[in-house]
Amino acid sequence: MNVSIERKRTDCAALPKGWQREEVLRKSGLSAGKVDVYYYSRGMRADTSLIPPIRQTASIFKQPVTVVRSQDGEGKVKRDLQHGTQVKPKQLFWEKRLENQIYNQRRQIALSERAYR
C-alpha cells in the first residue's frame, strides 16, 4: 500500500465550528496502514499558560490532595454556620427501636397487672 499522505488535517463538519480532525497513518507495527484520528479545537490553550492546581494537605486525609477551583481568584466559602444554628441529626433507627421496646414493656406490665386482678 503506497500512501503519499501521512497526516491529513481537515475541518470537522460533525463537530461545532472551529474543531479540526487529523488523520495520521501508522507506519509500522502489526497495525501498519491503519489510521489514528485526533480532534483539535482552535480555542485550545497551551499547557504552559495553565495555572497548576494547588497542592494542600486536608486535615482529615493526612495526605496531599489537589484543590481545583472552578472560579478565578479566591472564591468565598459558604459555611453552614452562616445559616444559623443547625439541629444535630438524630439516629432515628435506634430511637424508634427503643420507643418500640419501651411500649412493649409497658404493655406487658399492664397485661400482667390485669392478670393478677
From TrEMBL:
Sample GO molecular function, one term: DNA binding
Domain of life, per lineage: Eukaryota
Domain called MBD: residue spans: 5-86
SMART domains hit by this protein: MBD (SM00391)
Family matches, as Gene3D superfamilies: Methyl-cpg-binding Protein 2, Chain A (3.30.890.10)
InterPro entries in alphabetical order: DNA-bd_dom_sf, MBD2/MBD3_p55-bd, Methyl_CpG_DNA-bd
Pfam families per UniProt: MBDa (PF16564)
TM spans (from-to): none
Alphabetized PROSITE patterns for the sequence: MBD
Name of the protein in question: Methyl-CpG-binding domain protein 2
Organism in which the protein naturally occurs: Culex pipiens (House mosquito)
